[in-house]
Amino acid sequence: MAGGCAFVVIILLARVLFSLPTLPELVQDRLVLLLPGPAFSFALDRLRYLGKPLLFGVLLLLLTLVGGLGGVAMSRMRRAATLPVLAWIAIGLAILPLAGAGVFAGSVIIALVNLLACAAYGLAFRVLYAPSPPSSTPAVGVTHVEDVDPGNHAARYDRRRLLAGAALGIAAIGLAWRAAGRLSAPPAGAASTVPSTGPGGTPASPLAVDSLSAAVPPAVTPSERFYVVSKNLFDPDLDADKWGLRIDGIVDRPRSLRFGDIAALPSVRAPRTLECISNEVGGDLISNGLWTGTRLGDLLREAGVRAAATHVLFTCADGFTSSLTLTQATDPSILLAYQLDDAPLPKNHGFPVRVLGTATYGMKNPKWVTRIEVASANRPGFWQQQGWDEQAIVQTMSVVTAPDNNATVSPGTTPIGGIAFAGDRGVTRVEVSTDAGSTWTDAELLPSLGPSTWTLWRLQWRPEKPGSYLIVVRATDGTGAVQPARRTTPFPVGATGYHQVHVRVAA
Ligand SMILES: Nc1nc2c(c(=O)[nH]1)N[C@H]1C(S)=C(S)[C@@H](COP(=O)(O)O)O[C@H]1N2
Ligand SMILES: [Mo]
Questions:
Q1: Nearest 5 degrees, angle CA 459-CA 358-CA 309?
Q2: Across 63-76, average pLDDT
Q3: Could you give the domains of the chain?
């Protein structure tokens, strides 16, 4: 296992110093696809920002354990050195190709780093492993070694090996810690992205107007608090000058664009709300931003889409894929965005360029896009291969953001507020019940920033008497459909059901 740590130390050094993907990262995507449907996204969303460090740690630990098993095998082999060589060949010619990364992940450097790691593993084994002597000496306890000289020698040797093994273990943990600091980053602010209206909920304020506006989150989520979801342990770190976008497939004029080409095109600045399909009822994987980009449809028209085309397939620098129908992709609302809040796209939101739609869940909004292929058939995207819905049209949803669940409010007036979202259908009505759904009152809708962003809503509530209340909310979309009441899990088409909060009105 110390040998396994030596292996881990080498691959992590390459990750920390040269940003080279480690073995666990290279197999991670395929591992994810082998997991049952919602398992990976469940882990990501439920474990929150602990999920990735945990996954990374477990994969590294597995490597160490496999190292231990290899050690058992080597201890029985006549020529132990062949095992690390075989391991290297297996990594390059079997494991990586099976994981879809290709022979040695198509990189001489990765081949060399893994060779070095396997060599370090073999060397550690050689130095640290000593076969138990076929001695007739009874099992030597530490208490006995004081008076038996050969035993004393062996104990000192053992201690040295133990120390060397521990040092390798500590180095591996230290480097893993270092690398984990660069794991695909959570929003800088906090785990919550529908910002709660204050640390302890809304303080009962004598100024009714102020407290009412405090009941809703900011219409535009500050970009450092915009929710982040990606499949990656380490997100791509792209250089806008080296980045290129290929537009090809069944088009008359395939082309390669540089970042400058896209920034020079007519730009659109528009609010867009993104919600992850894994968002639970009342969850916070939803945010609203002001994005700047250029229309995807214009680029496609310039490329000359042929008549047989039906879909547009996106490929990203992290290997992520997703698709839109040609009708969706050529809609003027679909942007290739390169700014958020008038600043270059943050790295974790897809720098330098991402796709932004209006009707579909986040997974149809690929980040770090590198290729746009026009095709005559669809190809299931990364999450679709996991069983998530192909259409991924957002479900009508609404959330009470104030008061907090289980809050105690003072008697008198209490502001109730929140968000509602229905993609490009828009929200036309929000109703609130304070009696667990028996009666409903219309909430006031704040003017939304655009036809397909979230809508903020609020209501002044004057409870008649102290006690327990269940506040429930439901929205109606632009087609006149009330959001489905039935509670469902996010998998596979997005969660449905009414959000509710328990509130106690103090005497
Ligand atoms: N290249 C790439 N694009 C991606 C993803 C990804 O893992 N890789 N995740 C998708 C998912 S599931 C969501 S919900 C949104 C989240 O976008 P955000 O992190 O900017 O909020 O990005 C989408 N685009
Ligand atoms: Mo998502």
A1: 160
A2: 93
A3: 2-135+142-180 (no CATH), 220-386 (3.90.420.10), 397-505 (2.60.40.650)
